[in-house]
Amino acid sequence: MDETKRICSDLDIPWYNFTDLATTGGSDDETIDGFHGSDVAYARITYLLGKNNILTNYVDNDKLEYAINHPIDNFQVIPASK
Predict the structure, then answer these.
(1) Largest Cα–Cα distance in the chain?
(2) Are the beta carbons of 24 and 44 closer than 8 angstroms?
(3) How many angstroms separate the Cα of 24 from the Cα of each of 10, 11, 44, 56?
(4) pTM recorded for the entire structure
(5) Is 40:26 a contact under the CB 8 Å cutoff?
(6) d(C-alpha 55, C-alpha 2), whole Å
(7) In whole angstroms, what separates CA 8 from the centre of its chain?
(8) Those residues with Cβ within 8 angstroms of residue 66's Cβ, 6 or more apart along the chain or in another chain
(9) Distance of CA 69 to the CA centre of its chain
(10) pLDDT tens digit string along 34-74?
């Protein structure tokens, strides 16, 4: 991981580490099995990525922020289709 971070720095590429959901404002309660993220976890990650100038035009952070703050439960931000 340190080598990847160094390479990204050398190439002026943003580097992120989301291995701990606490860095996104989330917790293990937002994982499916303690490891794989739920909709809420990935909404948090996408929200943070959307703050990067390169992705700002492609990510609707207003909608993501609403979804994160008003989830259906710890796992869903989008209702399952019937």
Answers:
(1) 48
(2) yes
(3) 25, 25, 6, 18
(4) 0.82
(5) yes
(6) 24
(7) 19
(8) none
(9) 14
(10) 889 999 999 999 999 998 888 888 999 999 999 999 999 88
Amino acid identity at 7: I
Q: What is the DSSP letter of 37?
A: B
67 Cβ contact partners less than 8 Å away, ≥ 6 residues apart: 40, 43, 77, 78
Tell me how many degrees the CA angle 3-19-34 measures, rounded to the nearest 5. Answer: 150
How far is the C-alpha of 60 from the C-alpha of 80, rounded, in Å? 20
For 51, left (φ over 0), alpha (ψ -120 to 50), or beta?
Answer: alpha
Residue 37 pairs in a beta bridge with 31
- What crossing angle do the helices spanning 39-49 and 61-69 adopt, rounded to 10°? 150
Give the DSSP letter of residue 31: B
